[in-house]
Design a protein that fits this description.
The complex is a heterodimer of chains A (232) and B (123). By secondary structure, chain A is an alpha+beta fold. Chain A folds into two domains: 2-100, Beta-grasp domain (Ubiquitin-like (UB roll), Roll), CATH 3.10.20.30; 103-231, Alpha-helical ferredoxin (Fumarate Reductase Iron-sulfur Protein, Chain B, domain 2). Chain A has eight helices and seven strands, in the order E-E-H-E-E-E-E-E-H-H-H-H-H-H-H. In chain A, helix 2 (103-111) runs parallel beside helix 5. Chain B is an all-alpha fold and 123 residues long. Chain B has a single domain (23-122), classed as 3 helical TM bundles of succinate and fumarate reductases, CATH 1.20.1300.10. Helix content of chain B is 80%, strand content 0%. The longest helix of chain B is centred in the first third of the chain and has 32 residues, at 16-47. Chain B starts with 15 loop residues before the first helix and ends with a helix. The mean pLDDT of chain B is 92. Classes of the chains: A alpha+beta (232), B mainly alpha (123). The A-B interface holds A 6, 8, 10, 15-16, 64, 66-68, 85, 87-95, 100-101, 152, 154, 157, 201-205, 207-208, 215, 217-218, 221-222, 224-225 and B 1, 3-7, 11-15, 17-18, 20-21, 85, 88-89, 91, 94-96, 99.
């Protein structure tokens, strides 16, 4: 199989470059991460990438494969056009090869206060929700923060410091929609901003690439609707 | 530390929704930029009979026909893509499969309508 992989060594003065690899590898039933591990083990131990759970749960091996953001561990090799081009997630600073600095991404995540805010005394057992209230959180809580969506979004490319991006906005809505949370007003106040929220123009690149099949555009639309309703 | 980042737009696949959105912006820019030219042509056509004949002559020529066809496409595409985004804002068709269909629909319908207008201009 043939691969073209983005290489960058911060200790050299050189710019990033694409390196070609060819390896005997049976793609049947294998994922992109299997090939990356085989390349590192067999051809080039300096090739650097993140990975952990290898089954689409931890979200650490987000990369750009043939122009599309994916999780390497759940992306089948079969059917990919060769040479398979693998690059780091777009727009985030590259630390080395396929590893990007996620600091900006996490900063936006922290900004939406991704935790329950409820100032009432803690109940003895738990804060109950009806099945309907709990169902409101489906399609929101499953996000694994891999960064595939945010780094595929042109609004994030052009305003990475000011636009929160689909992942953080999805998480923001996850707590606004939570019946146990008491800070919806403050959350909406924070999001009501031409950049943080309203840079989303609904092109749905985020939905196209989400490896968990989530729909951040829909969550963002619901935040916008709540803002309109609140203003009326 | 100044780190590089990957953002080569020629190497990143743009889904159909992204294509329609970029064309929405491009068509909007084109329509805005054409306003002075259209106003000039309109004013010239109202000025005198000769002015009117000059504008008709220009629009009847190849470049005029091409320009008006492109503007016809820009108007229709901008309208259809705009209605699509307006629908999203109201929570309609914001699921991926539907969004892809409406994107293709807006793109192709705008091309067909613009082609129809352009062909009428030839007759």
């Amino acid at each position: 199989m043939r691969f073209r992989i983005y290489r960058y060594d911060p200790e050299s003065i050189g710019k990033p470059r694409m390196q070609d690899y060819e390896i005997e590898f049976d793609p049947q039933g294998k994922k992109v991460l299997d090939a990356l591990i085989a390349l590192k083990d067999g051809l080039d131990e300096s090739l650097t990438f993140r990975r952990s759970c290898r089954e689409g749960v931890c979200g650490s091996d987000g990369v750009n494969v043939n122009g599309r953001n994916v999780l390497a561990c759940v992306t089948p090799l079969e059917g990919l056009k060769q040479p398979i081009e693998i690059r780091p997630l777009p727009r985030l600073p590259v630390i080395r090869d396929l590893i990007v600095d996620m600091a900006q991404f996490y900063q936006h995540y922290r900004a939406v206060k991704p935790y329950l805010i409820n100032l009432e005394p803690e109940p003895e057992s738990e804060r109950l929700q009806s099945p309907e209230e709990r169902a409101e959180l489906d399609g929101l809580w499953e996000c694994i923060l891999c960064g595939c969506c945010t780094t595929s979004c042109p609004s994030f490319w052009w305003n990475p410091e000011r636009f929160l991006g689909p992942a953080a906005l999805l998480q923001g809505y996850r707590f606004i929609a939570d019946s146990r949370d008491q800070a919806s007003g403050e959350r909406l106040d924070f999001l009501e901003d031409p950049y943080r929220l309203f840079r989303c123009h609904g092109i749905m690149n985020c939905v196209e690439v989400c490896p968990k099949g989530l729909n951040p555009t829909q969550a963002i639309g619901k935040i916008k609707t709540l803002l309109v309703k609140r203003a009326l | 530390m100044n780190r590089p980042y990957f953002l080569n737009l020629l190497r990143i696949g743009l889904p159909i929704g992204g294509v329609v959105s970029i064309l929405h912006r491009a068509s909007g820019a084109l329509l805005s930029l054409s306003v002075p030219l259209l106003l000039y042509a309109f004013a010239l056509s109202l000025e005198s009979e000769q002015g009117y004949a000059r504008v008709c002559g220009f629009l009847g020529g190849g470049i005029g026909w091409l320009g008006m066809s492109v503007l016809a496409w820009a108007s229709v595409h901008h309208l259809l893509a705009g209605l699509r985004h307006l629908g999203f804002d109201f929570g309609y068709a914001d699921r991926l499969a539907t969004a892809r269909k409406t994107a293709w629909g807006a793109l192709l319908l705008a091309l067909v309508i613009a082609a129809g207008i352009a062909l009428r201009g030839l007759v």
